[in-house]
């Protein structure tokens, strides 16, 4: 049965490739499908016997093709609707889910049903819009237990999980997995434990055991709604340390392109001195000191005043350190 299914999939792939690309040689088809050329010849005989109008053209520019009339047309879709189907998703997230090859096959099947006049427009979408969720200088970590997480979610089976919290404490817990959420390039497991629903960063899951026990998924649970509410509550709970500053013209654009340690609450029109008044928000006072010190004399602190003295002391200790080292 498995062999029959494999051949059926291959025959469909041949049909879609010919519809999408027009003409392909036996060698090109064999390379695309990773089979021997004689296998392609047998497949073509099978397609012909099934009534598919496959034509073999001889000569230097020959190859296999379908009669032009043999194709289905996708109708009823507006331009923005079919464009939305062909905007490439995050390849990294698809790979994490083990769906990248399936997505490519699905895209080929949809494309095969488009009339020739629209196919160029589809390729233009691929060449003009690309979604990349990975971060600069960041290599996505491999999550060993990812397949088990997916299996538990689909089969509604409980997991025994060992998890490392943000404070490095390790806990063990039996959870009922409800869904997976991708935030940027990071995955989070949403799961229930003792009727409390929490989010767990997948990369911090040390080990999982798929249990035989099943659970009943809550009928009223909405993953998107839960994540939106959870995110808002998390942002509200973050500690805040606000600083009023003036920013040198030379670094205004860099400050606008902020990183993970600071948020720009507001940025006013530059003063006569050309320095720009702004309000910055940090999670802690220590992060504020380290961040502002990194810009040396390009950020002037207005409030709180005590932060000036603290950064001055830090800078003085740094100068004293290198003077004692004799490296200046």
TrEMBL record:
<dbReference type="InterPro" id="IPR013196">
    <property type="entry name" value="HTH_11"/>
</dbReference>
<dbReference type="GO" id="GO:0003700">
    <property type="term" value="F:DNA-binding transcription factor activity"/>
</dbReference>
<feature type="domain" description="HTH deoR-type">
    <location>
        <begin position="7"/>
        <end position="62"/>
    </location>
</feature>
<dbReference type="InterPro" id="IPR001034">
    <property type="entry name" value="DeoR_HTH"/>
</dbReference>
<dbReference type="GO" id="GO:0003677">
    <property type="term" value="F:DNA binding"/>
</dbReference>
<dbReference type="InterPro" id="IPR036388">
    <property type="entry name" value="WH-like_DNA-bd_sf"/>
</dbReference>
<keyword id="KW-0805">Transcription regulation</keyword>
<dbReference type="Pfam" id="PF08279">
    <property type="entry name" value="HTH_11"/>
</dbReference>
<dbReference type="InterPro" id="IPR028349">
    <property type="entry name" value="PafC-like"/>
</dbReference>
<dbReference type="InterPro" id="IPR036390">
    <property type="entry name" value="WH_DNA-bd_sf"/>
</dbReference>
<dbReference type="InterPro" id="IPR051534">
    <property type="entry name" value="CBASS_pafABC_assoc_protein"/>
</dbReference>
<keyword id="KW-0238">DNA-binding</keyword>
<keyword id="KW-0804">Transcription</keyword>
<dbReference type="InterPro" id="IPR026881">
    <property type="entry name" value="WYL_dom"/>
</dbReference>
<dbReference type="Pfam" id="PF25583">
    <property type="entry name" value="WCX"/>
</dbReference>
<dbReference type="InterPro" id="IPR018356">
    <property type="entry name" value="Tscrpt_reg_HTH_DeoR_CS"/>
</dbReference>
<dbReference type="InterPro" id="IPR057727">
    <property type="entry name" value="WCX_dom"/>
</dbReference>
<protein>
    <submittedName>
        <fullName>Predicted DNA-binding transcriptional regulator YafY, contains an HTH and WYL domains</fullName>
    </submittedName>
</protein>
<dbReference type="Pfam" id="PF13280">
    <property type="entry name" value="WYL"/>
</dbReference>
């Amino acid at each position: 049965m498995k062999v029959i299914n494999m051949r059926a999939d291959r025959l469909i792939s041949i049909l879609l490739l010919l519809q999408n690309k027009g003409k392909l040689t036996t060698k090109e088809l064999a390379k695309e499908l990773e089979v021997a050329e004689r296998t392609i010849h047998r497949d073509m005989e099978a397609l012909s016997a099934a009534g598919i109008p496959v034509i073999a053209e001889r000569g230097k520019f020959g190859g296999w093709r379908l009669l032009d009339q043999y194709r289905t047309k996708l109708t009823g879709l507006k331009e923005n609707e079919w464009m939305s189907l062909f905007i490439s998703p995050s390849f990294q997230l698809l790979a994490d889910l083990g769906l990248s090859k399936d997505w490519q096959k699905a895209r080929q099947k949809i494309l095969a049903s488009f009339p020739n006049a629209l196919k160029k427009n589809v390729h233009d979408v691929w060449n003009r819009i690309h979604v990349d969720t990975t971060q600069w200088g960041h290599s996505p970590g491999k999550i060993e237990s990812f397949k088990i997480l997916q299996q538990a979610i689909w089969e509604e089976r409980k997991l025994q999980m060992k998890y490392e919290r943000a404070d490095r404490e390790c806990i063990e817990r039996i959870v009922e997995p409800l869904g997976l959420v991708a935030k940027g390039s990071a995955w989070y497991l949403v799961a229930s434990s003792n009727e409390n629903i929490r989010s767990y960063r997948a990369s911090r899951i040390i080990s999982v055991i798929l249990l035989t026990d099943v659970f009943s998924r809550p009928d009223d649970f909405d993953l998107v709604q839960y994540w939106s509410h959870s995110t808002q509550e998390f942002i509200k709970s973050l500690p805040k340390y606000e600083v009023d500053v003036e920013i040198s013209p030379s670094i205004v654009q860099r400050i606008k392109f902020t990183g993970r340690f600071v948020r720009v609450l507001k940025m006013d029109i530059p003063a006569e001195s050309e320095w720009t008044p702004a309000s910055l928000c940090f999670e802690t006072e220590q992060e504020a000191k380290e961040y502002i010190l990194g810009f040396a004399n390009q950020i002037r602190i207005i409030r709180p005043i005590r932060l000036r003295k603290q950064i001055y002391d830090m800078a003085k200790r740094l100068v004293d350190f290198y003077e004692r080292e004799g490296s200046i």
